Amino acid sequence: MVLVSIIIPVHQVKDFFKDCVASALQQTYTNIEVLITCNGNLSIDECKAFLNIEDERLIYLSTDSGRHNARNKGMIEAKGDFILFLDYDDILFPNKISNQLNEINFKPLKNHILIAKWKKFKLEIEENYNFPFPTFFEDKINDSKGILEKLAKTGGFFVTTSWMISKDICNQIKWLDSPNDDANFFFKALVYKPTIIMTSEILSGCRIHTDNTSSIRNRDEFDKLIKSWDEIYYNLQLVDKENANYYLFQIYLILIRYSKEINNYKLFQVNIRCLYYGLMSKKIFSVFRKLLSL
Fold first, then answer.
1. pLDDT tens digit string along 45-65?
2. pTM metric for this prediction
């Protein structure tokens, strides 16, 4: 029977953390382990006392500060065939795991990534949401090149809660300390040419609030972001050069906005890279149309 490891990094205790853990433990598929990786100044005892939950599937770990360290330690300790990364403020729908495993007939397959639709919300999971990337789920079975092509067409991405990744892939890569750590990890996984199975049903919720750790607040975070996208670009070229260039072009359009929000930090460098990726993509008409819309 397939075992699924759910890794929840947490650095502070807030009410929505209880909802997050409850959503993991209340899965209709019960062969799970939930690894709560307490990092920074948060102790295991403090975390246990706050949750006040008795469940043998709960495993508490103490790690160095940083979400990347928490997730990496969780991956080392995880025993599951698949790993699901769940941020401490997000929510899983009760049938999240069962519906995704149903797509592979509940087999412990290697070199697979399972992805399901998600929604974003602020306060309540029932809030209305229009899913922005319906073309992602037009094909049930995809390879790395097909997924990159879909991403390049939209400039979008798959939120972390939407994935379930084979443990054998996770064993070969690590999380990086960066605001776009999810993109960095996912695109490393694509290099290993996984079979990617899509579930066209909303099965998780991603909470939007002022404490989201992916926000770009200062120059140090911006530098980490640029370094991470450099690494991503290298990995994506191994998948599909043309679509890698066009995807990075669209990402750098966003980085131009980020740069302006922190007093035009490295704006010239970002503009040059944006233009370079656009020209290298050979989608000249589309590139200049997007540039003119800035």
1. 999 999 999 999 999 999 999
2. 0.95
